[in-house]
Design brief:
Number of helices: 5
Strand content: under 5%
Largest sheet: none
Shape: elongated
Low-confidence stretches: 4-13
Helix content: over 70%
Radius of gyration: 20 Å
Structural class: mainly alpha
Oligomer: single chain
Number of strands: 0
Mean pLDDT: 90
Order of helices and strands: HHHHH
């Protein structure tokens, strides 16, 4: 192998490539960013809208728990995509968007029929507000992961 062929094959890394090893610290940071964003959003929502206090999904511990689970799983998916996809950032953004839409479907269903909820205080408005938290968490997580885990 000549020097010329070695340098020709050492092309620069494609834009959007992921440093998978960074996800071990970027993932937890994305979880924290999404939790903080959701708790700020919760404070704003509660200042503007009257939400029944007994509606469990809008309580801080519930928001923290489900945000941690969702973003943690998202970070794991991002790590897998980062190892396998040709364009991992783009691929992850598409997967994250699909996951967001799927995560919102139960809220839309319960907005149409809040009486079907398995807990007290359920209202159409409450389930509509949960969609806000899904979007806030998704934006915070995807932005953190895809920005800080780049090579």
């Amino acid at each position: 192998m000549s020097v010329r062929s070695a340098s020709a094959s050492a092309a620069p890394a494609p834009k959007g490539e992921v440093a998978v090893y960074k996800i071990w610290w970027v993932g937890p940071l994305a979880i924290v960013a999404a939790i903080v964003a959701n708790l700020v959003a919760r404070g704003i929502v509660l200042a503007l809208v009257d939400v029944p206090a007994e509606f469990p999904p809008l309580q801080s511990p519930t928001i923290v728990f489900f945000t941690t689970i969702g973003v943690g799983l998202g970070a794991l998916v991002f790590a897998l995509i980062g190892r396998r996809a040709r364009r991992p950032i783009r691929t992850f953004r598409i997967v994250a968007l699909v996951a967001l839409v799927v995560s919102i479907l139960p809220n839309l269903s319960l907005m149409a029929n809040p009486a079907g909820a398995p807990f007290p205080g359920a209202t159409s408005q409450g389930f509509g507000l949960l969609i806000v938290f899904h979007v806030v968490a998704a934006v915070a997580a995807v932005a953190t992961l895809t920005t800080l885990a780049r090579r």
